[in-house]
Design a protein that fits this description.
The chain is mainly α. About 65% of the residues lie in helices and about 0% in strands. The protein is elongated and about 55 Å long. The termini are far apart.
Length: about 190
């Protein structure tokens, strides 16, 4: 089976099936990241946008990092763009969709839904590294490469994301943003 770099080269060489293989190989992971970053209503659209962006920009993949690192970077950027667009259009209303009313659902499913709702309340600059590390099990180094941030910043954002997630799970409001602490360092 061809590795990702070989598939990229094959696609750029005119093999139409090579890109389909890349999509099949990585679609679930991209969808899972999108689901956790933008929520269930926009995850499929974000996933589609990720692969359209990849198709358009695949010739720009230099191979300096793993294809999956590049793909995760594209995924995070597409999701952040969707979140910015959403914030310009108004607040996200998770409660608009149908809500389960039965109480015989397993505790794990209920807890998972609570975490998904709380995760949507985590500020986006903390959500991306938190999802990539805690839910996708990516190492700090790869997350730093994906986000283009120093490892210290990634660790700090993951910590702050966990704190924000815990607050959201407890039903506490997010702390006010400190405009003097916008730029993080290592």
């Amino acid at each position: 089976m061809a590795d990702d770099r070989e598939l990229v080269r094959a696609h750029l060489g005119g093999d139409r099936g090579a890109f389909s293989t890349l999509v099949e190989r990585h679609q679930r992971r991209v969808y899972n990241i999108a689901y956790r970053m933008v929520g269930p209503d926009e995850a499929a659209d974000a996933t589609q946008e990720v692969f359209l962006t990849c198709l358009r920009r695949l010739s720009g993949f230099r191979g300096d990092s793993a294809f999956t690192t590049w793909l995760h970077r594209v995924t995070v950027n597409v999701c952040l763009d969707a979140l910015r667009k959403r914030s310009r259009e108004g607040p996200w209303r998770d409660a608009e969709g149908p809500q389960p009313v039965e109480r015989d659902v397993a505790d794990a499913v209920v807890a998972s839904a609570d975490v998904e709702r709380a995760l949507a309340l985590v500020p986006e600059e903390f959500r991306a590294p938190l999802v990539l590390h805690d839910l996708q099990d990516l190492p700090y180094e790869e997350i730093a490469d994906i986000l283009g941030a120093p490892i210290g910043t990634v660790k700090s954002r993951i910590h702050r994301g966990r704190v924000a997630l815990a607050r959201a799970l407890r039903g506490e409001p997010p702390p006010p943003r400190d405009p003097s602490n916008v730029q993080e360092t290592t």
